[in-house]
Design goal:
Layout lengths: L2 E2 L6 E3 L6 E2 L8 E2 L2 E2 L3 H4 L25 E14 L2 E13 L20 E3 L6 E2 L1
Antiparallel strand pairs: 1-9, 2-3, 2-8, 4-5, 6-7
Amino acid sequence: MSARVLTTASTLTCPHPPGAVRPPAAHPLTVAGASVLTKADVVGRDVLPACALPVAQGPPQTKTCTKVTSWNGGEAVRLTVNGAGVLLDQGFVAKTDGLDVGVPPDPPQPSLPPKLSATANQTWLRGE
């Protein structure tokens, strides 16, 4: 199954609005004028504006999402920029530095890093 390619026009958000990641990228490969994204464009980027998750010392402990800490999977195999796979809107797990317990746990669970979600906002280019 093919997935949509992520670009600078895509929406990357943490699960706590309005937290969003808007990585600047300037690759020669573009879709509708927007540069494609690679993992290096996203990991380490700030979540701006900061998400609405409050800081609580716990238990359970929570922390506002401020930075993307990891991106695993969701990279095109055949579509690359400078040897790096272009990011796709499916098949990935990306995390932030925030801490969240998610939906009210029963019994209480340890705080976990929130996961990012992605919306390609384009339908022209797909990858596998």
